[in-house]
Structure formats: C-alpha cells, structure tokens
User: What shape does this take?
Amino acid sequence: MTAVSNELSWYAIYTAPRAEKKVSERLSALGIEHYLPLQKVKRHWSDRIKEVTVPIINGYIFVNIALQDTRKVTAIYGALAFIHKAGIPISIPDNQITRMKNMVDFATEVVEFSTEEFDKGETITINKGPLEGLMGELVEQNGKHKVLIRIAGFGCALTTVPISFITRLHKPTLSDLSPPQKNQ
Assistant: This one.
C-alpha cells in the first residue's frame, strides 16, 4: 500500500471559459486556498471607456491542496481539470507562485501571460521601483525589456521594467531563486 501525503502543493486548474471569478468564489466558500491573479485594465466600448478587473491568465486558477484533494476541486462547478503530465497534476513550487504574486501586486505596468516557451535568458534582479528584489529572466519582446517569471509546467508571466531598474546576475538559476523580501 502507498502512503498518501497530506503535504500541500500548488496546482493549476483549468476553468470553464470566463468562469474564473465564480470558481474563485466557490473555492473560497469551501475554504480551499487558491490564487486568481487579477488586474485592472481599461476596456474601450463605442460609447465609453471603463476600468474592469480581469484575470491575467484566462481560464486558470492556482490551488494549494494535498494531491488527494484533486477530486474535491474538480467537483466544483466550473473547475474542469488540472494541468497534468501523464495523468498526474503538475505541482508548482511555492517560490514560483510567490514570485508571481509579487509581480502582480507590485507591477506598475500591465502584466502579460504567455504559454509560449522562451529561450532562457540572463537571470536578473530588479533593483529599483515597486518590484525591487524580484528575480527573473530578462527578455526582449517587441523592443521592450520585460521580466519573465516561469511557472513550472505551465507558462510564464511577463511585465515591462525600465532597463535602468535591473542588475544582471550570472550564477543563480531560476529554480534556485527565492522570493523577494519585503522591506521592513
């Protein structure tokens, strides 16, 4: 017989289209720790411009559960399936979720998300501004410098950072990076 671990890990769940906020409410009602990265963006209609809160990653929510609780989550209306490999949900390291939370909470620009695989770039740390201390990869996209935070087996989050706000690091790899420390 195999022992079942009660250790909590982060996993990504796929939701029904445009159901992320409702699934988040249902997870909260059940007391399940989760993270739905949201941001405010301006939407333009023919008669007005309105600021709305939207998910950064359409169709996904992160949950922090024990592996044996996956059925409890997929039983929630709107929660469709876990991101998995060979039928086993892919665990996302805590430090990657923490880095993403920090990026979303402190970014002054809109955070973009891409499931596109990027070639590994230089490891950098941000040394100024609201994202000070955040570590990630420096990439260039459409002529803008962006900081990339990888989420294992899932994708990458990106935000624009002025090049003068970063310092290159040469030795650490992304899997070794710890989350930034908040100033006290």
Observations:
- The mean pLDDT is 81.
- Residues 94-106 form the longest helix (13 residues).
- Residues 8-89 form a domain with the Alpha-Beta Plaits fold (CATH 3.30.70.940).
